[in-house]
Amino acid sequence: MLKISRLTVENAVGRCVTDAKTPRFGFALESDQENVRLESAVLEVGTWRCETKEQLAIVYAGPALAPFTVYPVRVTAKASNGETAVAETSFETGRMDTPWTGKWISDAAYTFTEKKVSPKPMTFRRQLKVGKKIATARLYATAMGIYELTINGKKVGAQYFAPGFTSYKTHLQYQTYDVTGMLTGNDTLQAVVAGGWAVGSFVFTRVNRVTADRQALLAELRLTYEDGTTEVIGTDETWEVTEEGPFVMADWYDGETYDATATVTAWRKAAEEKLRVSPKLEAEYGVPVTAHEALRPMTVTPMADGTTVYDFGQNFAGVVRLNIKAAKAGQQIVVRHAEILNRDGTLNTAFLRTAKATATYTCADGAQTYSPRLSYMGFRYISVAGIAPAEVEVEAIAVYSDVAHTGGFSCSNELLNRLQSNITWSSRSNFVDIPTDCPQRDERMGWTGDIHVFSPTGFFNFDLSRFLEKWLLDVKAEQLKSGGIPNTVPVQGYGFPATMPEMAIDWWGDACVIVPWVCYQNTGDISILKTMYPTMRKYVDACRFWAGIGVGKNRYIWHTPATLHFGDWVAPDVSQMAQWQQRSKWTATASLCNTSRAVARVAALLGNTADEKKYNDLADKVADAYATVLMKDGKLENEFQTGYVLPIYLDMLPAADKQKAVDNLVALVEKGDYCIGTGFPGTPYILFALADNGRADVAYKMLMNTKCPSWLYEVRVGATTIWEHWNGLDEDGQPAVGKNGTDNMVSYNHYASGAVGDFLYRRVAGIEATSPAYRTFTVKPLIGGELTRAEAHVGTPYGEAAVSWKKDSAAFTVEVRVPVSTECTLVLPDGTSEVLGSGTYSRSCKL
Ligand code: BGC
User: Fold this and answer.
1) What is the 3-state secondary structure (H, E, C) of 98-121?
2) What is the pLDDT of residues 45-67, one digit of tens each?
3) DSSP state of 6
4) Ligand 1 atom 4 nearest Cα
5) Which of 450, 583, 749 has most ligand 1 atoms within 8 Å of CB, for mutation?
6) What 3-state DSSP class applies to 535?
7) Which of 756, 762, 792 is nearest to 777 (CA)?
8) What is the dihedral sign for C-alpha 411, 417, 419, 424?
């Protein structure tokens, strides 16, 4: 039987409210028969009907959509075997271009000039009485800051940190809530607005008021009565405001202070607020941050000073939830958070730097529950003061963007399985509205280099289509005048590179080229490439400009001063930041080859043959310069792993040199006892550079190594997430403090080097897309590392693709699942191959 297993609107499954004028639709099919493809489909959206042979990114081309309207969507699919299937969904349009009746409001009496802290949370309210019966009610809301809405004390929606983090000068999301069932006719609407990213302290310099001087709220309630009439109630001077109330303090880094005994003594009249920025207000197009896993403590340890230390057994990003059995009004509970413990069992908070990461709660009388709403922490351990363990049930809630967990990998080696789990947890911890570097210390910024190297692995495990598309619009918005991309997006107060505002930074800025490419490979939706193409092109031109200083072949070697680059960031074979940066001539030149090649590929897809040629020529020249100026006959004068990995993986060397470079890399790796020596730019590719060039044996030795530095060293000494530094903890479980010239830059939840996940899927399990969205893919497991089985599943836009193989000394067996409308080339270890249409297959061969 044919079934439509997934139907998306704007890449969302389920409720979607959108302002897109031409929304995109997609669907996946399932069948219990083999070799099934979509023959044709009919898509109906409202009155528009279109026939298509596509399943992905079908763009609406009907009459103009009206705002505030629910549109039914129906797909009728006919498969190649004659079967048909039907599925229905609907979406709702947002405000589109409807002007807001509500005005931006704030507390005119609140001036906030303190530096390095966040403003007091501001609470707005409005009493509402309606005489008629309500048929439907929608609440539209956004803020400067982050808001929590309640109606009659009940939270509206499940989202944290709305309206989300965007480049506020350009984009600001608003949320749409269906509040029909929450209104009684006599209601109190309330909104707490904390400083968040727009007003609160952010970035390690703790700048505040970056976008607005104080918080502001914009909301509108649209009521449709049963008699057919409508009414719109917007924010205006009839609303009241105060900084009193239970939310005393909220800050990304310092945490939250909540006083359940606090009351408001005086409400003031809210006043209209003039904003400094005028962003486009758009119906939420990202992925809301919501609560996910609930973790229970594994150990509860009373400490000599009367506090209690709880260990959740897992490092993650989120908040605690205290279910307090009985308390006295005024009793104060203080919860501190940390990723690691000191030797004496107390929390080690040294690496949180200025982040206080504390939740302080003043109890009311009796039983009650508290969980922070306006901040989050990165932690595995907490210490609790002010309440005995018997009096409180302690849990922790993982909080992150609600991206679907669509992939999975496992194998016969438990350490690798833990590595996969660590990669997944570091993803969850750093997909918090934007892709961040880490969730605990005073950063949590949108570092471009981190997601650049991690995005392929991220996509294997999660559906990042909406999440990354939202962020990429900010990348585009934040591009500097002459092409450079800021190192963190949204910039939000982070200055560097301030001295040279037009500078482009290799491998970090490259995110504007590579991340859209990775999105396209995973979604098959070319629109992201169309949107980003001018940005990519301008960026590569800027890089080319900076590289162009010099004569002869040196015009293709990017050698601007090392201090302006990050180079081989966190490479463990050298100990100083300056030494990572000294390698930037190699990383930057390889980056220019990589990005110009990618732009050429995009140009080809967009039918721009002149650009295709131009950027391919540039890539060729840069590759040649690397091979001849930075290397001689495949050898580097000062050898380092990344210096070999990049030209090998990116195919920058003539065949003879390439083989020599592989041999040299192997010798270097062997000399280093199969330990990792790469920084951010080389780590994702080193195993491919070896395995794809005849040295799978060496790649597996590196992967399975448990000596420091290696992926499995971290696992062996107890990591539950991916670390920023390979030597984050020594064999005794103690941190390596400030040994790298970067002071306390020690994070235990940094996904970048988890980019090895790409290798687990593509080589160990052996599943690899050969055309966008896995329309065609290969399954070609790479046997090694003494593994006796491996399996992976991937949530492709066509449905789930999966592989599961096992072996003993004599035979190899593999099962593959091929989604409807896709084709898999299965290659067995004995070299035999066959092309499989959709279905589930089992094959084996002798070894
Ligand atoms: C961040 C990184 C980032 C780097 C740039 C660090 O402070 O945590 O992950 O990419 O700076 O050099």
Assistant:
1) CCCCCCCEECCCCCCCCCCCCCCC
2) 999 999 999 999 999 999 999 99
3) E
4) 447
5) 450
6) helix
7) 762
8) positive
Q: How far is the CA of 556 from the centre of ligand 1 (A)?
A: 27
Strands (E), 502-545: none
Q: Which two tokens stand for residue 352?
A: 């949180």
In this structure, the residues whose C-beta lies within 6 A of any atom of ligand 1 are 437-438, 443, 447, 449-450, 566, 569, 745, 750
For residue 508, give the ligand 1 atom closest to its CA: 10
Buried b / exposed e over 295-321, threshold 16 CB at 10 Å, is bebeeebeeeeebbbbebebbbbbbbb
Measured CA to CA, the distance from residue 751 to residue 696 in angstroms comes to 24
Q: How far apart are CA 787 and CA 101, in angstroms?
A: 63
Ligand 1 atom index nearest CA of 449: 10
Say how far residue 419 (Cα) sits from the centre of its chain. 18
Q: Whose CA is nearest to atom 1 of ligand 1?
A: 437
Residues labelled catalytic? 443, 724
pLDDT value of residue 564? 87
Alpha helices in 339-438 (DSSP H): 414-430
Q: 53 alpha carbon to ligand 1 midpoint, in Å?
A: 44
Nearest residue to 223 (alpha-carbon basis) of 111, 344, 92, 133:
133
Q: Tell me the C-alpha distance between 195 and 121, whole Å.
A: 7
Q: Using the mean position of ligand 1's atoms as its centre, give its distance from the Cα of residue 715 in Å.
A: 22
| Confidence (pLDDT) at 498 | 38
Angle at 666 (CA atoms; ends 663, 667), nearest 5 degrees: 85
Indicate the helix (H) or strand (E) that contains 623.
helix 609-625
17: left (phi over 0), alpha (psi -120 to 50) or beta: beta
Contact 116, 208 (CB under 8 A): yes
Residue nearest to atom 8 of ligand 1 (CA): 437
Q: Residues of the chain whose pLDDT is less than 70?
A: 496-502, 737-743
HSE value, Cβ hemisphere, 13 Å, CA-based, for 690: 27
Taking residue 841's Cβ as centre, other Cβ atoms within 10 Å add up to 17
**Do 4 and 87 meet the contact criterion of CB atoms below 8 Å apart?**
yes
The DSSP line for 141-181 is: EEEESEEEEEETTEESSS-BSBT----TTTEEEEEEEE-GG
Residue of the CA atom closest to atom 9 of ligand 1: 437
pTM for the model: 0.97
* d(C-alpha 804, C-alpha 787), whole Å: 12
